[in-house]
């Protein structure tokens, strides 16, 4: 496709910042010494190949010059210029694509009822994985956590071209990472875990080791909720399949990762998900336990200066045969106790449900949080 084939009305809507971020995310480096109303970049493969990006959106030919840059970037990625254009016109986001190939979708359309089920299944799948990012567990009794709901509310649905494709733009939450916090945006953790879990499902079909998926330490994204959502996404027809892909936001390209990943879910994968649902729901769930330990760090805050702080606290806990590190969300009163314990290096005791995670364990359903009685004033 030539630059002149792109809709100029849309290329004029692309900002210089979006173009520069896209190019830099792909490894293009800025050429120094170029001043004025353009910026030049050189290819990471060959310095001879250069990219010109206009900086003044008021120029009469801004749309044409931007179109040329879009085509050059598309050629570099071996990607359709229309796909690059769509990506640049979207907020910095990981684009998840759900492409169904089935007898019903051959004409490029599907029934309203089926389309509604696909959307609901997609929402439920992403919401389930978002909960697993925070707390890996086999069943999420309530899909109501704030971070997961906020993630879903920021997602945007876009349209595909040529066949029935549901695209979901998972907008990156580019917030400043606090010391000690995870620098990877919550959205990227969701999209990564989602794809990794789907790959694990496919691998389990091939290996026959489906029982291993019930271990949330190795597969934190697996849950009965996700399996139920996949049931809603299952296309009809023995030869039908659903391809789920991701185009990582060029504003934050993962290190050593493919720019575009995809996994094809065949009927056998959906059958495995369906068989796993009752198994995961029947697994024994963690029960509340009493813990003793010390406060390592305070990560909470307050919406305004008139309210005392509350929120996340990191703990170092001691069990009979191991030392655990975990995070917990505390109320205003509990957070005040944690602050006293941290300043005076006093031990605390708490009762709650421990959820183990490869990153950092978490304790939920706090029923008690206090200083160890012997040390209370």
Structure characterization notes:
The chain is of the alpha+beta class. A hairpin with a 7-residue loop joins strand 2 (38-42) and strand 3 (50-54). The protein starts with 7 loop residues before the first helix and ends in a 6-residue tail after the last strand. Helix 8 packs antiparallel against helix 9 (267-282). It folds into 3 domains: 3-88, no CATH class; 93-282, no CATH class; 289-375, OB fold (Dihydrolipoamide Acetyltransferase, E2P) (Beta Barrel), CATH 2.40.50. The chain has helices at 8-11, 16-25, 62-77, 81-88, 112-134, 146-154, 186-207, 224-233, 267-282, 332-344; strands spanning 29-30, 38-42, 50-54, 93-101, 156-159, 165-171, 241-247, 260-265, 289-298, 311-318, 323-330, 348-355, 361-371. The strands form 3 sheets. Strands 5-6-4-7-8 form a 5-stranded antiparallel beta sheet. The chain has a 5-stranded mixed beta barrel with strand order 9-10-11-13-12. The protein contains 10 helices and 13 strands.
- Tally of DSSP β-strands: 13
Sheet of most strands: 5 strands, antiparallel
Catalogue the unreliable spans.
none
| Strand residue percentage | 15-25%
* Helical percentage: 25-40%
Number of separate domains = 3
Q: What class do helices, strands and sheet pairing give?
A: alpha+beta
* Number of separate helices: 10
The overall pLDDT, averaged over residues, is 85
What is the overall shape? globular
From the N-terminal CA to the C-terminal CA, the straight-line distance is 76 Å
The helix/strand series, from N terminus to C terminus, equals HHEEEHHEHHEEHHEEHEEEHEE
Rg calculated over all Cα atoms: 25 Å
Strand order of the largest sheet: 5-6-4-7-8
């Amino acid at each position: 496709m030539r630059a002149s084939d792109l809709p100029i009305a849309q290329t004029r809507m692309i900002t210089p910042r979006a173009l520069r971020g896209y190019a830099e995310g792909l490894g293009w480096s800025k050429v120094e010494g170029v001043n004025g109303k353009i910026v030049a970049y050189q290819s990471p493969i060959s310095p001879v190949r250069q990219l010109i990006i206009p900086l003044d959106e008021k120029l009469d030919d801004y749309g044409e010059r931007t179109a040329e840059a879009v085509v050059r970037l598309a050629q570099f990625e071996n990607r359709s210029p229309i796909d690059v254009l769509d990506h640049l016109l979207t907020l910095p986001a990981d684009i998840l694509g759900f492409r169904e190939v089935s007898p019903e979708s051959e004409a490029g359309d599907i029934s309203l009822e089926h389309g509604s089920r696909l959307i609901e299944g997609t929402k439920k799948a992403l919401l389930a994985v978002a909960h697993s990012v925070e707390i890996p567990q086999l069943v999420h009794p309530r899909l109501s956590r704030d971070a997961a709901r906020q993630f879903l509310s920021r997602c945007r649905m876009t349209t595909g071209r040529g066949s029935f494709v549901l695209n979901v733009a998972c907008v990156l939450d580019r917030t400043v990472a606090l010391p000690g916090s995870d620098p990877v945006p919550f959205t990227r953790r969701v999209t990564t875990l989602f794809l990794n879990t789907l790959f694990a499902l496919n691998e389990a079909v091939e290996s026959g080791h489906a029982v291993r998926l019930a271990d949330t330490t190795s597969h934190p994204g697996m849950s009965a909720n996700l399996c139920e959502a996949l049931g809603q996404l299952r296309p009809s027809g023995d030869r039908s399949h659903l391809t789920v892909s991701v185009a990582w936001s060029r504003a934050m390209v993962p290190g050593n990762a493919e720019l575009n990943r995809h996994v094809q879910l065949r009927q056998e994968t959906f059958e495995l998900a369906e068989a796993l649902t009752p198994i995961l729901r029947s697994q024994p769930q963690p029960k509340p336990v009493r813990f003793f330990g010390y406060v390592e760090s305070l990560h909470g805050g307050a919406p305004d200066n008139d309210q005392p702080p509350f929120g996340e606290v990191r703990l170092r806990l001691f069990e009979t045969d191991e030392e655990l590190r975990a995070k917990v969300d505390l109320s205003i009163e509990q957070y005040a106790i944690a602050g006293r314990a941290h300043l005076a290096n006093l031990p605390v005791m708490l009762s709650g449900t421990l959820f183990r995670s490869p990153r950092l364990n978490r304790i939920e359903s706090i029923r008690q949080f206090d200083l160890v009685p012997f040390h209370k004033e």
